[in-house]
Structure formats: C-alpha cells, structure tokens
Amino acid sequence: xxxxxxxxxxxxxxxxxxxxxxxxxxxxxxxxxxxxxxxxxxxxxxxxxxxxxxxxxxxxxxxxxxxxxxxxxxxxxxxxxxxxxxxxxxxxxxxxxxxxxxxxxxxxxxxxxxxxxxxxxxxxxxxxxxxxxxxxxxxxxxxxxxxxxxxxxxxxxxxxxxxxxxxxxxxxxxxxxxxxxxxxxxxxxxxxxxxxxxxxxxxxxxxxxxxxxxxxxxxxxxxxxxxxxxxxxxxxxxxxxxxxxxxxxxxxxxxxxxxxxxxxxxxxxxxxxxxxxxxxxxxxxxxxxxxxxxxxxxxxxxxxxxxxxxxxxxxxxxxxxxxxxxxxxxxxxxxxxxxxxxxxxxxxxxxxxxxxxxxxxxxxxxxxxxxxxxxxxxxxxxxxxxxxxxxxxxxxxxxxxxxxxxxxxxxxxxxxxxxxxxxxxxxxxxxxxxxxxxxxxxxxxxxxxxxxxxxxxxxxxxxxxxxxxxxxxxxxxxxxxxxxxxxxxxxxxxxxxxxxxxxxxxxxxxxxxxxxxxxxx
Amino acid sequence: xxxxxxxxxxxxxxxxxxxxxxxxxxxxxxxxxxxxxxxxxxxxxxxxxxxxxxxxxxxxxxxxxxxxxxxxxxxxxxxxxxxxxxxxxxxxxxxxxxxxxxxxxxxxxxxxxxxxxxxxxxxxxxxxxxxxxxxxxxxxxxxxxxxxxxxxxxxxxxxxxxxxxxxxxxxxxxxxxxxxxxxxxxxxxxxxxxxxxxxxxxxxxxxxxxxxxxxxxxxxxxxxxxxxxxxxxxxxxxxxxxxxxxxxxxxxxxxxxxxxxxxxxxxxxxxxxxxxxxxx
Lengths: 521, 280
Known about the structure:
The complex is a heterodimer.
Chain A: H1 2-19, H2 21-51, H3 53-79, H4 97-108, H5 112-128, H6 132-165, H7 167-176, H8 178-197, H9 201-210, H10 216-226, H11 229-259, H12 283-297, H13 299-319, H14 323-328, H15 330-341, H16 345-349, H17 354-358, H18 363-393, H19 399-423, H20 443-473, H21 477-520
Chain B: E1 33-42, E2 45-55, E3 60-64, H1 71-78, E4 86-91, E5 94-95, H2 100-105, E6 107-110, H3 122-132, H4 137-150, H5 166-178, E7 184-188, H6 196-211, E8 215-220, H7 223-229, E9 232-237, E10 240-246, H8 247-251, H9 256-264
Parallel strand pairs in B: 3-8, 3-9, 6-7, 7-8
Antiparallel strand pairs in B: 1-2, 1-4, 4-5, 9-10
Helix pairs in contact in B: 3-4, 3-5
Keywords (chain A): Membrane, Transmembrane, Transmembrane helix
Transmembrane segments (chain A): 21-46, 58-79, 100-126, 132-151, 172-189, 201-220, 232-251, 271-289, 301-318, 324-348, 369-392, 398-426, 447-473, 479-499
Organism (chain A): Flavimobilis marinus
C-alpha cells in the first residue's frame, strides 16, 4: 500500500510533465535552481565548519531550526500543501489510517523540496567528520529530523484544513504571507546592526532554541561532539517527543479528514445593488466598472495593491531616507506595479473571458475599459505618493521631475500592458486562488514575455528617467519640467498606441485567445 | 418519411468546396443557423470532422451525442468562440466568421464548462452582459431584474456568483445569455444540475420563445428531455452528424434513446461479464 502511494505520486508528477513542454522546462529549471541552491548551502556549511567549531554549532542549530520551521509554516501561509495526495481523496477507499499516514508521509518527500531537504539534513553527517561520534549521531538523527519536518507540515495543514478550505482564509493568508517576506530585508539589516553590538547574546539564544521542538533534534550531534551525554539524552527526548506528538496530531486529524469531506463554502458574501456597474453607461465604462470591482474584490488584484503601503517603508529604511531614492523610486515603482498588473488581465479573467468574446465586444472598448480601471486605481494612489515623497523630503523643486517620471512610467507601462495582454497569455493564479499560487512550470514562459516587456519599457522610459535623475541630483527645476513634458508626452503616445495595437490584436484574435484560455484552465 | 442519414466525412478538408451563399433567387427560407463542412482538430485529434447542419428558423433543435462527440466544439464554432479550421457558419444568412460582430449580435450563448465573472453578484453579472452588448442602461436594469425574478434568483441576486450552487450558476449564465433578446439561442447543456422546478420554468420560457418565432439549439445527454422538448434533433458522434431531421423522422416510431444507442453503437446487455457483481 505504501509502495502504491509512492508510485501514485510519481505517476502524478510524470503525467503533469506530459501535459506540456513548458512543464518539462519548468522542472529542469527548478532542478537547476535546486542544485545551485544545494551547492551554495554546502559551500556555506563547509565554510562555517572551517572557520570555527563554535560557528559551526550555531549554524547547525539555527539553520536546522529554520528549515524545520519552514516546513511547518510555509504550507499554511504561502504555498498551500501539495494537494496531489490530499487525504480527502482517499476517503472512499478503505485504507488503514496507519498505512495511509506512512504512505502520505513518504510520498511528501517525493519531489524537489523533499529531496533537497533530505540532502541538506545529510550534509552535516559528512561535515562532522573527523568527529565520528558526532557524525554517527547526526546520521541517526537525520531520519528524525526529516520525519519531524514532514509530520509537522502535515499535522498543521490537516488540522487547519477546515479553516484553510474557506475561500476567505486562503485569500487573507495569501496576502498576509507577503508582508513578512517583504519585511525580511529591513529586518535582517536591523538584526545585522544589532548583532554587531550584542554578540554575546548569541550562545544564550542557541541554548534556548536547542530546547525547542524545532531545534532539539539538531542539537544532539552538537552535544555528542562535546561529549555531553546528559544534554544529548535530554535533547533526544525532546526531539522524539516532538515527533511522537506531531504524528499523533496528524493521525487524529487524518481520521477526521477521512470522514468529513471539505464543505467548500464559507459564508456567502453579498453586495447590495449593481455597485459600480450601475453608473456605467456603455460597453467601455461597463468593462472599466467590472475591472474596478475586481481590483477591489479579487485577491489576485488586491495582492498587488497590498505591496503599495509596504514599499515606501521598505525603500525608506533600506536607503536610509536618501532624497533621490525616496523621490524617484517609490511612486514610479508603484506606478509600474499597478500598471503591469493588467498585462495579465485576460489571463486573470480565465475562461470567463467568453462573455467578452460572445457579446462581440469591440477590442477598443475592452482595452480602454481595462486601462481606465487601472487609472482609477493608480491615479489617487500615485498622487498621494508623489506629493508625500516631495513633502517628506521638502524638495518642492523636484515635484515636476518626480511627477514626470511617475506619469511617464505609469502611462508607458499601461500602454505596454494593454498591448501585451491582448496577445500573450501567461499562466497566472486561477480565479479564486491567492496571489501567490502561481501554477507550476509556468515560470519560464512568464519570464520570457515579461522580460521582453520590461526591456521595451526600460528603453521607452529612459528619456524621462535620465531627465528626472539629473533634475533631482542637480536641483534644476527647468530640467524637472523637461522630465514632466517627456513623461507625459512619451507616456501618452505609448498609451494610445498600446491601446490601439491591443484593440487590433484583440479584434483579430479573440477566438484564439479563448482557445488558449481553455488550454490554460 | 425516412430520416436523413448523413455519411461521415473521413477525408481531410483540403479541397473543401463551400456552397454558394443563398442568393436572392433562393426561394427556401433562410435557416437560423447553417453549418457547412465545419472542421476542427486539436493537434492530431479531429474533434469535429466536417459537420453539416441546418437549423430552420423557428425550430427547437436538440443536439445529442455521447461524451466527446464534439457537441461543445461545434457549438463553440457556431457562436464565434472557436475558429474552425475549415467550413462556414451562417446565422440568419450572416457569415459569422466573415462578420463576427453582426453574427454575434443575434446569437445568445450559454457555453458549458467555462467560468463566469464570479466575483460579481448575480445581478451585476446579468447587468454586465447587457452593457457589453451595448444596450441602454435603463433597459438593462429592468430586463436584468425581470430575468432574475423569472429564474427564481431574486433572493440571491446580491450574492457573489462564486458562492452560487451549480444549478444557480447555470441559471444566471442563461439570464446573461438572453438579456439582449437574441433571434437564436445556443445553449450547451442548459439543464445540467438545474433543479426540476427551475428546469421546467426554463423550458416554458424556451417554448414560448420558439412559439414567438425564435430559434433554440440545446445540447443534451438526456434523450427523454430532447424527445419531449425539441421538434428537431441531430445525433452527433466522433465529430460527425449521424442523423438529423425532425425528432419523429430520426426516431422513426421508436424512442429517441433506442435510436440513439443503435446509431452510436456500444450497447451491452446487462451484467454480461460482471456476474461477480451479484452478491445475493
């Protein structure tokens, strides 16, 4: 039975690859990525081992704990657990729960993250040499660590499955998960600064972490290398206790999962009346109103908006409040973020796009409506950001330059997006998914289209960017006005021609778009 | 009268001759929908291999066929959602693929297996469909409310479509399909997962619509339903039309289901080979 489950997982992976060449390319790139990361990790570990025994011990306990914690928490927050072997799917088969648990656990290791984890857990075994006792301890603890990772991830996801099933939880969690990732940079910088001062605190911290469920299994080999058998025993007890508890929790909730299939629906949400569509008086404004509704209601759009309040904080901290950065990166970057979002507009619609196709909506109305919605979202935000940056730095002379660059990037990106989304579809999270459930194997195709788009963008906004830089740097207001003229001028031309080109592509290729959307779905 | 049995077209559409468009001399009434030599393949798989179909104006036309017969592909091509590799579609005489805008204006489409803009409420979705058709705002508002009332969706009109049940989703898509009062309705599996009361209401709407001169094409798996509801039927399998005509012609005195199974083939007798299933 266990072998069956493993074979099933492999078969599912294999069938996924047979679906498209891009999946294979994606897998190969993922593999390359993993190999490079593993290589870097090994080099890093080797380096710390060479530097000093003390640093090596710290690395083993800390790094190991982070790995375990990542297994426990990331599926909850960001990725969602790999649902190819969802326990619900076995509900109708009479598989003994114990067997199912073992099979699912082993199957969880099949795949890139699982294999990489096994390798990383085994690395210290080799690196402990010539201390053979510690190496042996690490080798004995390796299966415990791996099992703790897997059991923990399944215990948390299975236990919380009923909550995670509700659409609202997934949407909120997906958006919230982004914040710590964004704040990681600034936080690390702060920690780096603090660590330079409070170095003495580290051994104490290691001591605490080593007695937690995430660190105990890693600490055993450290204790053995020191010959401290009592502590080794203590850590071993904590590690095994943790594993037993996790397996028990998983076992319990797996039983529940097998008899309570997902209900799917949470509370049905309501919105009164026709909303924004009520004020629409034509096809173009109808499209704009519908898109605007999506900007406010669809987590995939909301996700790109949640970045906006965070971005100024991050850039402000990282740059140390540098004028040039505050004036010329925050608002323009947000302008890009908002405007680039609609480059995936049709892909976000997914097959719901049929309504546009079947009603014979003119391409011009489709393109203009989507661009208008982005303007309605971006306009107020960007105005606040530009004025805020100028006020905060007190550089009112730089207002034309900052405004010019922001408007230029916003309009140019909108023009490019309007053309791109009518011609190229890339795989995006499906309707109802969070903003970060990008489908597997899509990375390469996305990167090619987006990379070319970005290259064109850089060339097109270069004039106002250079002028704005010069204006702010040399404190020259006339150059700033030149930047504003360039931004509005070039942006305006690119926006209108982008919308026009997009409309022509749309009119000529609506059925082809529809067919590709069906294939992507 | 004998049913018209149409021979399959095994040859690829290389030297396909398109019949001349009905000139002014043609005395026969212009059909609501005429498909001529429609062909579509996906990679090596031929989904629709040369379908000819004439749907007379004012008819209630059923399209039946086993799973994977090419019904949805055919209807997609007939409504401008999928470009055929070869062949011609005429909607009330308008060449759909030469002038899609004019063609789509008179068709109402309910596709199967496609998503909806489900972050809108039911009312918003139906309104949106009307506005996309370029209809006047007040007319859209009044028709949307009337449609939702007729389909028993009034109570849930302010609920997001994503939270609708499968049957409610079908109904709201049906409302969105017909808000512009099309001359031809193309409905792919319109009764799937719709509750019996609503299905009966929808059938009543459709019958009255046909009575008033409109044309309806429905695809379905349910032979009984097609036999009771439709006046014309076409049996499709493997991308070809096996039989087409009035329901009485095609079934020739038997039930439509028996005719269908005979045409499509694959009938087995009971538990032959499954004797172990007898447990008592």
